[in-house]
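Training component of the fellowship. As part of building independent skills, the fellow (R.M.) carried out the full modelling exercise for a liganded target. The chosen ligand was zinc ion. The inputs are recorded below so that the supervisory panel can assess the work.
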Amino acid sequence: MSSRGSGLQSKKAILIICDGMGDRPQKDFGNRTPLEAAYTPHLDRLAKNGWTGLMDPVSPGTPPGSDVAHFSLFGYDPYKYYTGRGGLEAAGAGIQLAPTDVAFRCNFSTVDDNFTVSDRRAGRIKDGTADLAKALNGMRLETVRDLTVEFVQTVEHRGVLVLRGSRLSRHVSDVDPHQLGVRVLESKPLENSPEAARTTNALNEFTRRSYEVLKNHPVNIERIRVGEKPANIILARGAGTFPQITPLSRLYGVRTACIAVVALVRGICKIAGMDVIDVEGATGGLNTNFMGKAEAASEALQRYDYVLLHVKATDVAGHDGNFEAKKKAIESIDRMIGRLTQAIDLSQCYVVVTADHTTSVSVRDHSGDPVPILIFGPDVLASDVTRFCERSVAHGNLGRIRGFDITPIVMNYLGKIKKFGY
Ligand SMILES: [Zn+2]
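Fellow's submitted model of the complex:
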């Protein structure tokens, strides 16, 4: 472990984000939330001996996307710094964006000659997308000649389109209609500017031409031959630019790392200046390697000051509307935290546990409810609540805070915040 000027061992912190863990009381389950119903001795112990309260990931009543919520939890006000999903997607795929470039999240999709969408994921295509992407990459556009088109496939049917050049805008609508049996949309400017008009021209031409390039591509001819859906068009959505933020490492002078599988979360972590640590068997699903994550986190805390540990399983169960699966995921997280807290020196490390939003099993989507939070550490005031759940922590000693307060609160404990005033 490193030491600071005084020769004392420097303090560390871990932020554990249980994606979508917050919930609402469920009538069919004794009016309890999955967190209330779960057996969580380790979380309860941390809650009893730490600060507890409620946290609004972005602002009260606003259902946040995971991207916006993570921005907030890392201390960046999303209303100031969030610049659309596409830029984050590009970062997650390891693509460097210049401040003037605009990036889009894309799907390989299937359309007929009339541009009517029959499958937004092209039969969940897995193979051949690298060849298809190569055929699109570097396309010269007729309508906007001074742009460079970059297209990269990512996982399965997904990809990223980057328009590189100047005088572009991220304020343009999607060509992806987000439903089947309807025609591909024309992208429209969402602001009255020549930049937005220019960007829609480029995107609309790219979309049309992607169909011309892909429909007779050998990969698709073979797919049709074996009865699979051709990946014959690229449908773009979520225009975005690279967010102009200062990495945590520079803001606070800390070494940071993340343990996360989900590409979007990894992308945001990279932008925030974190090193990304891979864990064997971590899947982003209900069957993830919880104990492997605990071990990776305790190792990371020897080399880094601030570690993010992200678990997706709770969100997956929430979107599935599966109370029992969510309860089970929470119990697995509890055991993971048990393993982690055994392995680390709790007299030198703060442990923060919260969610990035509520994904209630009754709503099956994100909602704008506050989520529970606990901050355990060597010199924090015990809240004396007996359970870590939505109901108990409302009586906790932290009150109600916003997502972007968390990182400054932690950095204060690590002695990384400069005095405001003299
Ligand atoms: Zn989320």
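The panel noted the following from the submitted structure. The CA atoms of residues 176 and 235 lie 5 Å apart. The longest helix spans residues 194-215.
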